[in-house]
Design the sequence.
């Protein structure tokens, strides 16, 4: 049985999409690559009021650069955001 992570309060757990390690044939080291500003919503906290965000689990969202913080749970890295840091649901 795998344990699913569950966001609480006004938090969302986001899985960032994998970025390409090559651009135009050049390999870009991980430290030089800019992290994407989009990801897939994995879990939505129970205190989120916005109906669109509340129903966004499994959807791609865009968020502000440099927001939130990363945590690792069972070998998977998640970005933790609050609902006011979401710019758009794609």
Sequence:
């Amino acid at each position: 049985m795998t344990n699913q992570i569950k966001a609480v309060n006004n938090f969302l757990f986001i899985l960032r999409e994998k970025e390409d390690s090559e651009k135009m044939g050049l390999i870009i080291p991980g430290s030089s690559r800019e992290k994407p500003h989009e990801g897939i919503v994995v879990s939505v906290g129970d205190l989120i009021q916005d109906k669109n965000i509340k129903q966004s689990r499994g959807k791609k969202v865009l968020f502000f650069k440099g927001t939130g913080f990363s945590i690792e749970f069972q070998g998977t890295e998640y970005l933790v955001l609050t609902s006011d840091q979401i710019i758009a649901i794609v």
